């Protein structure tokens, strides 16, 4: 089943349009961060400048 251990679980990233964008093992923190780093914006500081 997609190389995911049924007893270990997984993380599924689903877009708002119901497209499954990523299926990752629970220990794939770096892959999850890399996925979101491609399009997420850095938070802005209270003064309006990016941190």
What does this structure look like?
The structure is a single chain. The chain starts with 9 loop residues before the first strand and ends in a 14-residue tail after the last helix. The protein has 51 residues and is of the alpha+beta class. The protein is elongated and about 45 Å long. It has one helix at residues 29-37; strands spanning 10-14, 20-25. The protein is built from 1 helix and 2 strands.
Short key terms for the protein model shown above:
51 residues; alpha+beta; two-stranded antiparallel sheet; 1 helix; 18% helix
Q: What is the CA-CA span between the terminal residues?
A: 40 Å
Order of helices and strands: EEH
Q: Which regions are unreliable across 5 or more consecutive residues at pLDDT < 50?
A: none
Helical residue percent band = 10-25%
DSSP E strands, number: 2
SS field, number of helical segments: 1
Strand order of the largest sheet: 1-2
What fraction of residues sit in β-strands? 15-25%
Largest sheet: 2 strands, antiparallel
Blueprint (SSEs and pairs):
Elements: E1 10-14, E2 20-25, H1 29-37
Antiparallel strand pairs: 1-2
At a glance:
The chain has 51 residues and is an alpha+beta fold.
